Amino acid sequence: MKILVLGGDGYLGWPSALHLSRCGHQIGIVDNFARRGYDQELGIASLVPLASLRTRVTAWREVSGLRLEVYEGDLTEAGFIHRVIRAFRPEAVVHFAEQRAAPYSMIDRDHAVYTQVNNVVGTLNLLYAIGELDRDIHLVKLGTMGEYGTPNIDIEEGWLEVEHKGRTERVLYPKRPGSFYHLSKVHDSHNIEFACRAWGLRATDLNQGIVYGQQTPDTALDPRLATRFDYDSLFGTVVNRFVVQAVLGLPLTVYGSGGQTRGLIDIRDTVECIRLSVENPARAGEFRVFNQMTQSMSVLDIARTVAEAYPGDVEVERLANPRVEADQHYYRVQHSRLTELGLIPHLLSETLLTSLFDIAREHAERALPQTILPQTDWRTPSATARTTPPQVGEMLPQARTVRQRSSADDTSTAAGSGAP
Amino acid sequence: MKILVLGGDGYLGWPSALHLSRCGHQIGIVDNFARRGYDQELGIASLVPLASLRTRVTAWREVSGLRLEVYEGDLTEAGFIHRVIRAFRPEAVVHFAEQRAAPYSMIDRDHAVYTQVNNVVGTLNLLYAIGELDRDIHLVKLGTMGEYGTPNIDIEEGWLEVEHKGRTERVLYPKRPGSFYHLSKVHDSHNIEFACRAWGLRATDLNQGIVYGQQTPDTALDPRLATRFDYDSLFGTVVNRFVVQAVLGLPLTVYGSGGQTRGLIDIRDTVECIRLSVENPARAGEFRVFNQMTQSMSVLDIARTVAEAYPGDVEVERLANPRVEADQHYYRVQHSRLTELGLIPHLLSETLLTSLFDIAREHAERALPQTILPQTDWRTPSATARTTPPQVGEMLPQARTVRQRSSADDTSTAAGSGAP
């Protein structure tokens, strides 16, 4: 199958491209290198060194004999994505090409607006290109479990059967997200559902949990094939960040009580979910939603699991929660559709954590410990009042440290950190 | 009370500003004249001639002795709205300043993207300005009944109590809108609800029905105070368009069967709803939603009502529906919160229609009949693949006529037209 992977140079886009390639598909990668640009903007970096996309593609060819086509450009330029789809003629498009960090979107007004415009306009341009060129192309779009928030009722897979005053309706599951990033994905979902309804497009919205891990069988074949290992407060996801904190001898930092429960997924399962979604396309006109996660854990439980797996002392610290989230809440998620398609989940295990500790230790000298603590208080808007989105290379404006040790309610067993 | 009216030069913004001014409030008007620009872009025009904003403000001062401050600029420029709020120090902001025509948003990719960016970014900039400068400012935001779509269950006022698997939650009412314009308002609602939750802002989201009428007691005082009378296929709303078709001796055009049922409201009630919302502010942190409509009617019933009120022959024609909407559906809407605050509705009456016929007749020589029939098929995406939003003065690209007489199912009594 011919598959375009948008954002194919990113943390998950790259291993997904390799997995699909190895499974016999013909892959085109689209990227504008925005993610590498955020590193420059913010002074952060992947713990594991990254080869350039050109080097990666060469390495994959050497290792596997398989070719990857590359298109460099920006989805917010409508003409670009239109030309790429016309040239490559994909049967499926996997869309990872969005700004994907909630904390980044909450830095200030510029970053909120940039995130929503980048994500929403990129997806709109893609919908129009598909709608005009070939409505049969299956769109596989990355959403997030964070779109749902933490409702007091079970989270279903995208749709909800509602009974109200004696009548029934199947509705899009009501969303109540917790950041301008998460909101951008909610906006995307609404736009995509409409395009399916209006134009008969076929789409799969993958509401993904927090991804952990850094290796897939493909990326492990050669150091040049490695994907990102983020651990900073903006792009680092909770398990990976705890692992780096443990290895660096830093305290694991919990936001609030650590009672926030989140859906998780192993990076090896992510790439397999992408394959399963692509190989089992949605019907024409169908907007289907899969909850792409394999287990739920509270942040405190994640911290305890990492601490127990680590072969050394792990200190523990609790931070005032900079986020807008409940840290005690109901959380029960339906996530059976991908397992029905054949996913065999890897649950969070000591084996996986041990291999992550090894990777972190190997690259520990590259770590930037000052990037780990949160700098942005989500409850205080910061309006920088510029008129253009931030450019790659500009520095993080007016970051404010929200570090704040809680004393009264500190417990020595508490360990954790916010969700991504 | 000091009140900023964003979009205060528009169809409803202008009469709302006058009504609030006459009721003793101190008014600032913000506008970028985008609505007048769309006229130039599309070759359409208000049936009633419009004075410039400067002339309008002068006329209001002469007639009432009251002053209106004016700020000319664009909400998508964050610095502009930040400066205006800092200078004017409003207690409430009434936000009409969005691209408000569903058909306009469906012309092509450019217009879809322009609509979503203009509306979403403008509102985000406003939220940040309020959040940073004075969280006590009450935001009164114009939404639309079209955000809900036509669900098979009763439409409540913004929130829905859901019982699911034995548990309950109060959720944002699930939306399923029918155009990229309506979607932009759904995006806004989600962003605003988050800002209330995260920053403690206070907001009222007014999901307004289709407005009809052209005069309020204030605009009728002087021809220079008149507001718009749109009747074209893009900006004309259904009642006003039928009135003009009748007066011009043109057939009333129904989209599909005319069974589409919509909420309606008289322009005199709109301005009163704005006053009631402003004078009874939301609580700090509250995101409340009022359904701003006074009655529901099917398009066919609206057509019959107009035809019966018209003192002459009215021809009838049915068009293939260019829109993405059901024309047979359940529609029952809760809309009691504004009447609880004191609204006394004007229902659609022969008196009102007669006065609208008179206004239309008075200006009939200005009519542009070629602008009345729909030119855009919403079920066919048109990707013009430009990279910038349309500029004022550019012409409507590649308009396609979707006029199509249905023959078999045509009935001589059918009369109507699509909702706005």
From TrEMBL, chains A, B:
<comment type="similarity">
    <text>Belongs to the NAD(P)-dependent epimerase/dehydratase family.</text>
</comment>
<feature type="compositionally biased region" description="Low complexity">
    <location>
        <begin position="379"/>
        <end position="390"/>
    </location>
</feature>
<feature type="compositionally biased region" description="Low complexity">
    <location>
        <begin position="409"/>
        <end position="420"/>
    </location>
</feature>
<feature type="region of interest" description="Disordered">
    <location>
        <begin position="372"/>
        <end position="420"/>
    </location>
</feature>
<protein>
    <submittedName>
        <fullName>UDP-sulfoquinovose synthase</fullName>
    </submittedName>
</protein>
<feature type="domain" description="NAD-dependent epimerase/dehydratase">
    <location>
        <begin position="3"/>
        <end position="291"/>
    </location>
</feature>
<dbReference type="Pfam" id="PF01370">
    <property type="entry name" value="Epimerase"/>
</dbReference>
<dbReference type="InterPro" id="IPR001509">
    <property type="entry name" value="Epimerase_deHydtase"/>
</dbReference>
<dbReference type="InterPro" id="IPR036291">
    <property type="entry name" value="NAD(P)-bd_dom_sf"/>
</dbReference>
